[in-house]
Amino acid sequence: MNELLMTEEMAEADRRAVASGVPSLTLMENAGRAVADEAAKMVAPGSRIAVLCGPGNNGGDGFVAARHLKERGYDVRVACLVPLDKLKGDAAEMAKRWMGDVRTSIPKDLNSDALIVDAIFGAGLARAPAGAFADAIAAINAARGQGARVVAVDVPSGLDGTTGQPAGETVVTADRTVTFFRKKPGHLLMPGRALCGEAIVGDIGIPDDALAAPAAAQLAGSLFHAVENDPVSWRGTLPLLKRDGHKYTRGHALVVSGPAFHSGAARMAARGALRIGAGLVTVASPTSALPENAAHLTAIMLRPCPSARALSEILEDKRKNACLIGPGAGVGEDTRDLVLSALKSGAATVLDADALTSFAQEADEGEGSVGFGFTGAVRPTTNHPETLFAAIKEKPERGVVLTPHEGEFKRFFARLADLPSKLERARAAAKESGAVIVLKGPDTVIARPDGFAAVNANAPPTLATAGSGDVLAGFVCGLLAQGMPAFEAACAAVWLHGECANGFGPGLIAEDLPEMMPQVLKKLRAGT
User: Fold this and answer.
1) Residues forming beta bridges with residue 116, ordered by sequence position
2) What are 397-446's pLDDT values in tens digits?
3) How far apart are CA 523 and CA 399, in angstroms?
4) Do 493 and 454 contact (CB within 8 A), yes or no?
5) Closest by CA position to 157, among listed 168, 174, 171
6) Cα Rg for the chain, rounded, in angstroms?
7) Which of 373, 252, 337, 345 is nearest to 303 (CA)?
8) Around Cβ 8, how many Cβ atoms within 10 Å?
9) CB–CB of 281/270 below 8 Å?
10) Where is 303: in which H helix or E strand?
11) Is the N or the C terminus of the chain less surrounded, counting Cβ atoms within 10 Å?
């Protein structure tokens, strides 16, 4: 049940269900009942509930919900924002089955209702709400601000279910959203996730085989091509400890350090790789940072690495099977050379932060980030991202994972930055680069080059702290070292990263994340 359906994919699933013999009226009846079930959990018995219906099938769902709530003893009033004779098809039929009054304008006293059912617009809204519709949305939000609770049908009115973006300036903020059959990306992508509140999936009778692809279809052998990131998707590839295993069977992760005073990010990444299960972890350090790295590292080994050539020599040892470059590395030619050396090796490679910015279309001369809160001189560069993409696509074996946040993405994938959906941006970047993309944020998207993607939804706000992304990159590297495929390793690392933060709670700093990993892995493997 973790598949995500775009608006048009959900419409196709509906069509297939009807074609298989499920009456469309039955689907609408079940949808309205699901909304009523959730509404009844949100307020006390007998409470006053307002149901605001729009012109399409969402309005039909609203009429069904109103009928079921009234039958359960709630004080229900219905407003339809279009004349009843303008309703069509199933929505018109469900309006006829409602045995109460129907207001033709927005109730003036919505704030006196305990609950408002937003059944105005669904996920396929093509333009910004205007006129009476915009007024109704504003009235719902005003009533919510005064204590009324709001449950939205499918998506909050005014929200695009595919992109998670408002269609205009006016959008409902809901406490709970009831969608049907499967979630849509907009339920997980920001700001949609915040606007939806708690997203509930109702079973309305669409058979699971509605997702099966026809013979001529494409991606992943099914209708859908995105999932919500959770262990269902990758648990089967998670590395397992074996009774006869030893440290050399659990992979050797190599993390490239930045120069003196910029080495902390690499150490945190290395700690993450070790805690997530890599058998051995080595920090490859420039000469200037050897003293400070030696002073801090214990279980993690240290190796001098003064140049890209030295890195190539280190990676000639095939036991070092995963390499991370970027945290605290610095922006410029030296980092570019390190990246290209790593990509020529047989090691799986994670490129984060400065490793990406060093290949950006342009870097302005002056100050720039070198990781872990430090700044330093940025050498101007005319190296294009295509230099990196070519090296990725020529890589002889194993996977490459790029882990940009939105700012790095805009610098590195400048042509793609204006695509309307974060999901679309990540997919396009994966296709263009040939790498798995981890587009970070509160709604991290993981995409592979064939377009399949996962949207993560378990990251708490406490992860917005210095060094958090460095630890995440280390988690990815540690799983790659253990032989996990690149896409699954990225998905698992992102989810585990979020769970570590959730388990720790307020006051989290980046150093806490690796120390939470044993507890999170124990619960995951126990199935709790």
Assistant:
1) 50, 150
2) 779 999 999 999 999 999 999 998 999 999 999 999 999 999 999 999 99
3) 28
4) no
5) 171
6) 26
7) 252
8) 12
9) yes
10) strand 301-304
11) C
